[in-house]
Amino acid sequence: MRAAVMWGPGKPFEVQEIEVADPAPGQVAVDLHSCGVCASDLSLTTAFGQPTPVVLGHEGSGIVTAVGDGVDSVEVGTHVVLVWVPPCGKCAPCRRGDDYLCANRRSSADKRAGKGAAWASPLSVGGTEIHQGMATSTFAQRTVVPANAVVRIDDDVPFPVAAMMGCAVPTGVGAALRSAHVQPGDNVAVIGCGAVGLNAVMGAVVAGAARVIAIDPMPERQALAKEVGATEGIDPGQLDGLSGLDVVIDAVGAPATVSSAWKAVRRGGTVTVVGAGRPHQVVEINAYELFHDDKKLTGSFHGGISMHRDLPMLVGLWRTGRLPVEKLITTTADLSEINEAVDAQQSGRALRVVLRPQPR
Fold first, then answer.
1. Is the pLDDT of residue 118 over 60?
2. CA-CA-CA-CA torsion sign (224, 230, 232, 233)
3. DSSP state, 126?
4. Which residues make Cβ contacts (< 8 Å) with residue 305, sequence separation at least 6?
């Protein structure tokens, strides 16, 4: 099958033929029809310890083509979205309903981190094992994953939209609805209008926010934010002039943006950080102010969304036009164009490029 392999940290992708194993007991094979290029994929090998060679990609949708023994949750022909935090259903976070924080989630970086060997990857080329990035590897024509790493989606949902439902939509919308708990009438700002930030804008609108301020250095991103519901768009240089906000959602996650968000919320307000900061970065907050102003600083991993529980809710909001996901897809492209898609997104020329792994 065809896949985009990264042979060294930060190196360009090489689209080539590789082998994929048949699904073992408890696993399923999925032919991928759409996969989104997420910024998180591009920093895994350089900032987060993902070993190489690797097939990256965690935002994908497709059709189940084979199932291993013991799988009864899906069958061949089921349309699915890949889930990059497959819940075990048994650990403490899963039992309390926080399955996006599953304690038994494994990744191919675990061995390097001293957590023991991960599972055997189903991917290889010429006898060399290819790591399975984010335990999903959606930058390929086919992937093999545990059955709990896919969730059904209605057949009429277009594959590009379904792929976005794998990360950008739940992460951003969930940051507003689940993590920040935006309330009707709230005044909200969102820092960073990439795909996740724009979904946070839409989530704040769905929650009934009165004022939604989109903050981004690119005027076209500000304009798109207003198109999907923001009441205004401003440049980051104006952020320090904001105050008295109920909620600020930081989709950048840098110490400077977190600090600015902290200053912008009112006493009792909430700062929710959904942007992936780097492991070495530290945010300093005045201890007295933390006590005195009673502000809340929260993280937001995967938007606090349980895919198995919440995907129907997200699809319902899309169906009724309240989550116009299509507006966030700049274009679609063949998998062979992945390096051009990466360049377009990193330069800001594209917001989200969705790749087509299957030949036309």
1. no
2. negative
3. T
4. 100, 170, 171, 173, 174, 178, 314
Q: Report d(CA 239, CA 228) in Å as an integer.
A: 21
pTM of the complete model: 0.94
**21 touches 343 (CB < 8 A):** no
The C-alpha atoms of residue 345 and residue 42 are separated, in whole angstroms, by 11
Asked if 32 and 62 touch (Cβ cutoff 8 Å), the reply is yes
From CA 33, how far away is CA 23, in angstroms rounded? Answer: 19
User: Are the C-beta atoms of 199 and 173 separated by less than 8 Å?
Assistant: yes
Q: What type of residue sits at position 308? A: H
Q: Where is average pLDDT lowest: 35-49, 155-169, 254-268?
A: 35-49
Pair type for strands 2-6 and 13-17: antiparallel
Cis peptide preceding 23, ω within 30 of 0: no
More confident site: 278 or 75: 75
304 confidence band (pLDDT: 50, 70, 90): very high
How far is 352 from 10, CA to CA, in rounded Å?
19
Helix residue ranges, H only, the chain: 39-47, 92-95, 159-164, 168-174, 195-207, 219-227, 255-264, 287-292, 307-319, 338-347
Query: CA–CA separation, 88 vs 220, rounded Å?
Result: 41
Domains annotated for the chain, with CATH where assigned, are 2-166+330-356 (3.90.180.10), 172-301 (3.40.50.720)
Q: What is the pLDDT of residues 18-39, one digit of tens each?
A: 999 999 999 999 999 999 998 8
- The enclosing H or E element of 332 equals strand 331-334
